[in-house]
TrEMBL record:
<feature type="domain" description="Ribosomal protein eL8/eL30/eS12/Gadd45">
    <location>
        <begin position="10"/>
        <end position="92"/>
    </location>
</feature>
<keyword id="KW-0687">Ribonucleoprotein</keyword>
<dbReference type="Pfam" id="PF01248">
    <property type="entry name" value="Ribosomal_L7Ae"/>
</dbReference>
<dbReference type="InterPro" id="IPR004038">
    <property type="entry name" value="Ribosomal_eL8/eL30/eS12/Gad45"/>
</dbReference>
<protein>
    <submittedName>
        <fullName>Ribosomal protein YlxQ</fullName>
    </submittedName>
</protein>
<keyword id="KW-0689">Ribosomal protein</keyword>
<dbReference type="GO" id="GO:0005840">
    <property type="term" value="C:ribosome"/>
</dbReference>
<dbReference type="InterPro" id="IPR029064">
    <property type="entry name" value="Ribosomal_eL30-like_sf"/>
</dbReference>
């Protein structure tokens, strides 16, 4: 089965609307430039809690996915990425909808 969520994440990367990594996402959240943050299932507890605090403070949706950092990295052409942020509002909403559909399967 082809995973549409990971495919779309790769498309967002190619469109230049995806930030990779903890530091880039953290800085962009503070500047209100990120609309959706995706975390791998193997992200550390401290990182997860820190981004949940950002969710509460800056109202940016943050989700922990069923995907590993390696799976997310492969989808966007990197080795391993545990935190990514989407800078385009509509693409973020579409990615969130795909993630919800995957969870219902």
């Amino acid at each position: 089965m082809v995973d549409k969520f990971l495919q779309f994440m790769g498309l967002i990367k190619r469109a230049g609307k995806l930030l990779e990594g903890y530091n880039k996402c953290e800085e962009a959240i503070r500047r209100n430039r990120v609309h959706f943050v995706i975390m791998s299932q193997d992200v550390s507890k401290n990182t997860w809690e820190k981004f949940l605090n950002y969710n509460n403070k800056y109202k940016v949706p943050v989700v922990k996915t069923i995907y590993t950092g390696e799976e997310i990295g492969n989808a966007i052409g990197s080795s391993e990425i545990k935190v990514v942020g989407v800078t385009d509002k509509n693409m973020g909403k579409a990615l969130m909808n795909l993630l919800k559909k995957n969870e219902k399967l």
